[in-house]
Amino acid sequence: MRNRSRLTFTSVALFAASSTMSFAGQVPFGASQPDIPISSMDRVYHADQRSNTISVYDPSNNTLLGVISLGEAPQSAGHPAWVGGGMTPANLSPLYYGQLVVHGLGFSFDRKTLDVVSIQSNSVTFIDTATNAIKHITYVGRSPHEAFFTPDDSEVWVTVRGEDYVQVIDGKTYEKKDRIVVGDGPGMTIFRPDGKYGYVCSSFIPQTTVIDVHSHKIVATVPQPSPFCPNIAATPDGTQVWMTLKDTGKTEVFNAQPPFNVLAILDTGPITNHVNIVRNANGQFAYLTIGGENVVKVYTTSNTPQLVATIPVGELPHGLWPSGDGTRVYIALENGTGLQVIDTVSNRVIATLPGGQAAQALVYVPGAAPSGGGLSNLMPLGSFGQAVHLFLGSPGSAASTAAPTSVTLNNQGPIDLLEAAVTGLQPNTSYTLGYVPNLNNPAQDFQALSTFMTNAAGAQIVESIGPLRQVVAGTPQPGDQRYLEIVPSGGTQPVQVQLQSQ
What we know:
By secondary structure, this protein is an all-beta fold. The chain has 2 helices and 36 strands.
């Protein structure tokens, strides 16, 4: 992979910055808090949407310790976890009891509790970071997305994206205590480090809501250039809020204080996923995962942000969080199945680790396991991490060419859940993903898997389910091999085809 990391600072400027400013305090804490050096007591967690697990890592030696299972491991056909012994996974059964689509993560400011949002089971699971044991499960409204503790740990705010409110949960009893109505589809809440304001971006309407944390009253709204905001971050110095717009590939920056005016709108790239803030000896920077380009982009946090680095990473980067001292940032790979570690001074990947399927949100919790090794209630990765990775590119593309579309087949037992991070197509256009027996005759025996509409950035996340691994990535019987391709809806000539190797 060609290294596209580029730094625009000179060494003189970096030395001047480090010698005149003392940066400390990493998100979600304030800038006045001391940095916390990486140690074996720290933990990195990411939520695994398709294996319904939490992958747990020791950042001191970059080791996967195991997973916390909130659902059931993929099983073979005929296993009791499969409905009728057939092709339906247990999590589609009305008798399924585990959590489903484990997606969002947050943690308490005392660093003793992890909160985990499972979208399709409408739940927030509270986990003891020292023992990895479940302390409580609170069920909320339809399709929650993210949950974060207020800076005093008194409350947990859960964005209920399938409805129109933030569910407020008591931070000690985990019981529901209030609702804050903000409009359709709240995507995520983040708090200013001093705890005065909560910022709630939307995934359905082009508006972010600013709320007084003490009174639960709305004090302002901020326009979004487009409706779909999945992620939001506040700078530790309390001056800025950054939020991503996945549908248009943009990032918005606004003032964290009244009048909450918009400072910048950046064209960051297709499938702009998550954003977080890193403070190190070189200054304060915003790091963004750009899923459609398989890179992390780094910007200054000036009122006119400047791109200072582009870091190649694995397939479909999603969540990210800095270490307690800002020297590392950790990247969840949704299609890459695991995580990568970036050194924030050199802005290069220094480690790649396995993990559960379809990693989403990621958090770094300093001092999460203060004693005993923190290995209780963890399971081996095993089948939770089984996945096959493919790539699609323009017909005739060389196998070594960077492909615009990555595909992961997540093992769900005898069937697979396909997730394609599609990019490089025409904006707002309908396409069909399917497969054929012969790429030299792409119109013959085309079998459609999913029809989709690209967003304004010419990208989309496309999913399908079926016994796909064997026919498109395994060793099928002669004549059974199939190849993925994308065609314009109603057309026959592919715009992207499966590459033989990558």
